[in-house]
C-alpha cells in the first residue's frame, strides 16, 4: 500500500510539473492581452469593465470589478475573438497561444485526475 501511495504522489508531482508551467505561461499571455488592450485600445478596455491581468494591474484596474471583468472577458475570448484583437496581429497571436495553453493544461489535468482516480480506486479495492 505504501508503494501505491508513493506512485500516486509521483504521478501528481509529474502532472503538476507539466501543468503549472503551462498555466503560468497562460497567465502571462492574459497579462499581455490586457496590457495591449489598456495601452492601444483603451476605449475598448474601459467599455468591457477595465479588466486587470493576473499579474498586471493598470492604475485604473485595481479593484474586484476589474478582476471579475478579466475573468469574464477571458472566458468570452476563448469562444469569440473580439474585433480589437482581430485588428491586431500581436494580440491575435497571443490569443491563439492562450487558447492552446489552456486547452493543453485542462486536458493534462483531466488525464491526471482520471489516472489518480483509477489508482485510488484500485488501492481501495485491494
SSE inventory with pairings:
Elements lengths: L1 H39 L1 H6 L16 H16 L3 H4 L2 H37 L1
Describe this structure as you would to a colleague.
With 126 residues, the chain is an all-alpha fold. Helix content is 81%, strand content 0%. It has helices at residues 2-40, 42-47, 64-79, 83-86, 89-125.
Number of strands: 0
Q: Biggest sheet: strands, sense, closure?
A: none
Beta-strand fraction estimate? under 5%
What structural class do you assign from the helix and strand content? mainly alpha
Task: Let me know the average pLDDT.
Answer: 94
**Uncertain residue ranges:** none
SS summary, helix count: 5
Envelope shape: elongated
- Taken in chain order, the helices and strands follow as HHHHH
Tell me the helix content. Answer: over 70%
Using the CA coordinates, give the radius of gyration: 19 Å
Our measurement of the CA-to-CA distance between the termini, rounded to an integer number of angstroms, reads 9 Å
Short description:
The chain has 126 residues and is mainly α. It has five helices and no strands.
What are the key terms here?
126 residues; mainly alpha; elongated
Amino acid at each position: 500500500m505504501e508503494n501505491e501511495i508513493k506512485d500516486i504522489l509521483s504521478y501528481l508531482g509529474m502532472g503538476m510539473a507539466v501543468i503549472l508551467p503551462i498555466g503560468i505561461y497562460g497567465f502571462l499571455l492574459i497579462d499581455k492581452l490586457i496590457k495591449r488592450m489598456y495601452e492601444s485600445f483603451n476605449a475598448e478596455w474601459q467599455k468591457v469593465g477595465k479588466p486587470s491581468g493576473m499579474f498586471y494591474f493598470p492604475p485604473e484596474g485595481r479593484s474586484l470589478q476589474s478582476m471579475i471583468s478579466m475573468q469574464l472577458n477571458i472566458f468570452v475570448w476563448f469562444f469569440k475573438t473580439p474585433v480589437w484583437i482581430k485588428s491586431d496581429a500581436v494580440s491575435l497571436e497571443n490569443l491563439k497561444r492562450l487558447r492552446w495553453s489552456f486547452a493543453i493544461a485542462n486536458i493534462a489535468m483531466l488525464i491526471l485526475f482520471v489516472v489518480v482516480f483509477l489508482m485510488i480506486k484500485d488501492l481501495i479495492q485491494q
